[in-house]
Amino acid sequence: MSRDSADTGRSRRLRAALALSAVGLLAAVGTVVLPGTASAASTLGASAAERGGRYFGTAVAASRLNDSAYTTILNREFNQVTAENEMKIDATQPQQGQFTFGNADRIVQHARSRGMQVRGHTLAWHSQQPGWMQNMSGTALRNAMLNHVTQVATHFRGQIAWWDVVNEAFQDGSSGARRDSNLQRTGNDWIEAAFRAARQADPNAQLCYNDYNIDNWNDAKTQAVYRMVQDFKNRGVPIDCVGLQSHFTGGSNYPSNYRTTLSSFAALGVDVHITELDIRNAPTDAYRNVVNDCLAVARCKGITVWGIRDSDSWRSSESPLLFNGSGNKKPAYDAVLAALNNGNPGGNPTTPPPGGGGCTATITPGQVWGDRYNTSVTVSGASTWSVVVTITPPQKISGTWSGNPTWDSSGNVMTMRSNGSGNTFGFTTMMNGNSSARPQITSCTAG
Ligand code: XIL
């Protein structure tokens, strides 16, 4: 046997052995990120999952689930789904008291049977109301809205990772005011009432406020939503996240301060989601910037594009998506995948929060078992520090080392303070059935 063929035979056996052990590992613990593995995932969802357990999702229309060209791309590329219209009020309660969930259930079933997470969209909104609701006002409307939130969130309980509880409640322009609507006219507290009803109906869903034109940090609308979320957090109104629709078309382009907007909302103690991304003519640079900005903010959990092919888009004439009408990848797709793959494994470069900062905390994934995994965090830029780490329930931190931990009331947010034992601390997290989520650094503060 020549030297060449001996080498080839050995490397073939090595590859076969590695492949076998990788299969065994995956079977045991689900998808894992192996520390130190240079990765170039080949799909959007897989790559996002490797960036700190993020998702890359799409809006889905039930009517397209019979189109195999569509479902082939959906099933290959995406690990999160939002129903484009099927969970809206006119779809789920077309007549008062009569609920129809068939199309929404089909989407949820398609997604969940393939391990994709589902975003519920949306429980309370001035638009796409059924006729009976459009004609209501006052206490009757308030009660009908709360009943709708309760019934729909109860129907989907346990299946929805995030609900857009309230959609588009603020005015555009310089006023910073609430949008006038029949819901707004029931009283300014309609939004918090909706969030409380949603929390009660599905305590495990993360509850989001979702809007468009809140991308530019300098806009009055962005500031107004920011102040509402700050007020909700201060008063204990149950809110977990803010969704930025990010329809970048025509008058509203990708703003250069987008990352500031994401990190400023995150610093309030909520997650941020990019929920309905589409960009007129799909420029590669704007798509790349959105991905890089999300990866730079630990609490940016993922990106959803508003449709798969340009021909599926609500703005199809603007060709704003990642696949063309024939289902082929566009240059914007390549830019997005490359940006995801180039992102920091673990996805955790810390953006210092306003007024804090002064150090950087970097996550290194540690050993993974079937039911738990270890994480270590190294701090640079300060010798005494406190680092805030957030985990995704039902995961729970079960043990820590080399620091002094304290916890918030939810048990999901740990503040680890230096205890003189160096600049690396660690912890063990129980997966409790969620093997894909990974801890996020929320802040690093020196001193
Ligand atoms: C759009 C859908 O894409 C269209 O099919 C429908 O005709 C109108 O609504 N903001 C939202 C989404 O929150 O629900 C909207 O979806 C787009 C703007």
UniProtKB/TrEMBL annotation:
Broad class of enzyme this protein falls into: hydrolase
DNA repair is among the record's keywords? no
User: What is catalyzed by this enzyme?
Assistant: Endohydrolysis of (1->4)-beta-D-xylosidic linkages in xylans
Tell me the Pfam families matching this sequence. Glyco_hydro_10
Assigned EC number: 3.2.1.8
> Per UniProt, which keywords does this protein have?
Carbohydrate metabolism, Glycosidase, Hydrolase, Polysaccharide degradation, Signal, Xylan degradation
Stretches assigned to the CBM2 domain:
352-447
- Signal peptide limits: none
Residues at the catalytic site:
276
Please provide, alphabetically and separated by semicolons, the GO molecular function terms listed in this UniProt record: endo-1,4-beta-xylanase activity; polysaccharide binding
What the entry lists under Gene3D superfamilies is as follows: 2.60.40.290, Glycosidases
Write down the PROSITE patterns for this protein, in alphabetical order.
CBM2, GH10_1, GH10_2
One GO process term, biological-process aspect: xylan catabolic process
Ranges for the GH10 domain?
38-339
> In which family does this protein belong, per the annotation?
Belongs to the glycosyl hydrolase 10 (cellulase F) family.
PANTHER family attached here? BETA-XYLANASE, GLYCOSYL HYDROLASE
What is this protein's name? Answer: Beta-xylanase
Q: What is the lineage of its organism?
A: Bacteria, Bacillati, Actinomycetota, Actinomycetes, Micromonosporales
